[in-house]
Specification:
Elements (H helix, E strand, L loop, with lengths): L2 E7 L7 H12 L3 E7 L5 H10 L2 E6 L4 H7 L2 E2 L1 H6 L4 E5 L2 E5 L2 H12 L8 E5 L3 H12 L4 E5 L3 H11 L6 E3 L9 E6 L17 E9 L7 H9 L4 E3 L2 H16 L6 H10 L1
Parallel strand pairs: 1-2, 1-3, 4-6, 7-8, 7-10, 8-9, 10-11, 11-12
Antiparallel strand pairs: 3-5, 5-6
Bound molecules: 2'-monophosphoadenosine-5'-diphosphate (ATR).
2'-monophosphoadenosine-5'-diphosphate binds next to helix 6.
């Protein structure tokens, strides 16, 4: 029987998830169809109920529904629980299992695809919104020597640092307080680029050999990555690999099979 999956969002037309999961299915011999579902802003739960009633096996959830998906889940993984956001739902009979694979995707992209260790390194996470919260637990799990969350509204960064410091060292600071500190990995989890802006990083934060990572991909990531390299980052990587890795982790959550990501990342790079 053909299993049905979908990505649910608003907007969703731009999503690369159908291409990625169709490639995973071909690679692993899975019999599935994966579509896009545009949910009206006030009908997320109804759309999920309809999809389940039609026999859907699971969905990926994208903006702006990750918090609603978290609420909808009747059982959640620890990483989803702490992220307070769900990007993967699996329908297990009467149970709606919610997971968040974003952080695992980020970590795998940095550590495996970019071959840049996180353990023992100084990591700076820019932003304290949903995107930052979603990756904090897996990042802490990699045991960086320092993990600093910088945000314009310091209160949000302080609240995140306070919440997550029970799992490992992490602290908050303002952008101005970053001056005279250097980092081996700087991750942009802000939405600054959506407005064509850059996070207000002081000069000198990039250590020699450092990695600048933008969780967005394509043209949106370029201003941050170019500016980071101009300020001394050795490498700038966009979030395309994270996108494919979070999808692979979701595929594993649904089907217990871990697809290979390298050929899918390479194919997507070629068409962009
Ligand atoms: P998301 O779900 O994408 O994380 P969000 O929850 O609205 O979206 O959070 C947006 C994040 O980007 C916040 O950390 C925000 O900083 P503030 O909390 O200070 O508003 C950050 N952000 C947005 N525009 C920014 C800019 N121009 N410079 C720095 N940070 C910015």
């Amino acid at each position: 029987m053909t299993d049905r999956y979908a990505v649910v969002g608003n907007p969703v037309a731009h999503s690369l998830s159908p291409q990625i999961h169709t490639a995973f299915a071909r690679q692993t011999g899975a019999d599935l169809v994966y579509t896009r579902l545009l949910a009206p802003l006030d009908r997320f739960a109804a759309c999920i109920a309809e999809f389940r009633a039609e026999g859907g096996a699971g969905v990926n959830v994208t903006l702006p529904f990750k918090l609603e998906a978290w609420r909808l889940a009747t059982r959640r993984s620890e990483r989803a629980e702490q992220a307070q956001a769900v990007n993967t739902l699996r329908f297990d009979g009467g149970v709606v299992f919610g997971d968040n694979t974003d952080g695992a995707g980020l970590v795998r992209d940095i550590e495996i695809n970019c071959a840049h260790a996180i353990a023992g390194r100084r990591v700076l996470l820019l932003g304290a919104g949903g995107a930052a919260r979603g990756v904090l637990l897996p990042l802490i799990g990699c045991r960086p020597s320092a993990l600093v969350i910088a945000n314009r509204s310091i209160d949000k960064a302080l609240a995140l640092a306070q919440h997550f410091s029970r799992w490992g060292a992490c602290r908050a600071c303002s952008y101005a307080e970053l001056a005279a500190n250097t980092f081996d990995i700087v991750i942009n989890a802000t939405s600054a680029s959506v407005a064509g802006e850059l996070p207000p990083l002081p000069a000198g934060v990039f250590a020699p050999g450092s990695l600048a990572y933008d969780m967005m991909y394509g043209a949106r990531a370029l201003p941050f990555l170019q500016s980071a390299q101009a300020q001394g980052a050795a490498r700038g990587i966009d979030g395309l690999g994270m996108l494919v890795e979070q999808a692979a982790e979701a595929f594993f959550v649904w089907r217990g099979v871990r697809p290979q990501t390298a050929p899918v990342i390479a194919a997507l790079k070629e068409i962009r």
